[in-house]
Specification:
7 helices; about 230 residues
Length: about 230
């Protein structure tokens, strides 16, 4: 009988131990499941704001990135003066004093015409100084924007220079037939002629952009005409 009692106690202890282990494992699994199903904690507002990165934006273009406008300014005016010869000489002197030069001059007994080139930006000041010579009875100003043409031509010049350099490098490689060499040389000459023409065009634009053309037509004032008639 005692043996049976001991067997029952041992069996009960084993069952109790198994129940304890099962309870511990069940509690651990429940804790993990709760942690996995719970939503992730939202960071505080201040922290979230600090972690946000500003959207990438393109830098604002600076004045150095914006091409300068290429403007050609031409002015023409008619003046009545007492002495055409003296007025023309004075106008030439004024042009030289402003950094310009005389390009064309014509005079007869009753009128005269003078074309001067004035540094860009000084044309208006030069025109104002002419008022001391007589009366301006008519004036006109024309401005032409050649910015696009100017920079497009510069790009074409660079491309042509690169093409010519590439073809010259090709000639340095062996294995070309005589006919092929002659064909490459002809193409180089053609591209060179086009390049020189474009460079001349840019040079001409630079001159017109740097200096404003001012054409002045002089005629005698009525007072001067009447005085001459009385003298005669």
């Amino acid at each position: 009988m005692w043996g049976d009692i001991m067997k029952k106690r041992s069996l009960g202890l084993i069952l109790f131990t198994i129940l304890i282990i099962a309870s511990i494992m069940s509690a651990g699994c429940s804790g993990r499941a709760a942690n996995e199903s719970a939503p992730a904690e939202t960071p505080p507002a201040d922290y979230a704001a600090g972690e946000q990165k500003p959207a990438a934006t393109m830098p604002a273009p600076t004045s150095s990135q914006t091409p300068d406008r290429k403007l050609i300014v031409m002015l023409s005016l008619d003046m009545r003066v007492d002495n055409i010869e003296k007025s023309m000489l004075d106008a030439e002197a004024m042009a030289a004093a402003s950094g310009g030069y005389t390009r064309e001059s014509y005079q007869n007994e009753s009128s005269g015409q003078l074309t001067v080139m004035i540094p860009a930006g000084k044309a208006d000041t030069f025109i104002s100084s002419l008022r001391s010579l007589g009366k301006i009875i008519n004036s006109n100003k024309k401005t032409e924007d050649v910015t696009d043409s100017y920079f497009d031509t510069q790009v074409r010049i660079k491309n042509l220079e690169a093409e010519i350099e590439t073809m010259r490098n090709l000639l340095q490689k062996p294995g070309w037939k005589v006919s092929e060499i002659l064909e490459i040389e002809r193409e180089i000459r053609r591209l060179t002629d086009e390049l020189e023409s474009l460079k001349g065009y840019i040079t001409n634009l630079d001159r017109q952009i740097t200096y404003s053309e001012v054409r002045i037509r002089f005629e005698k004032s009525q007072i001067s005409i009447d005085s001459a008639s009385q003298d005669s």
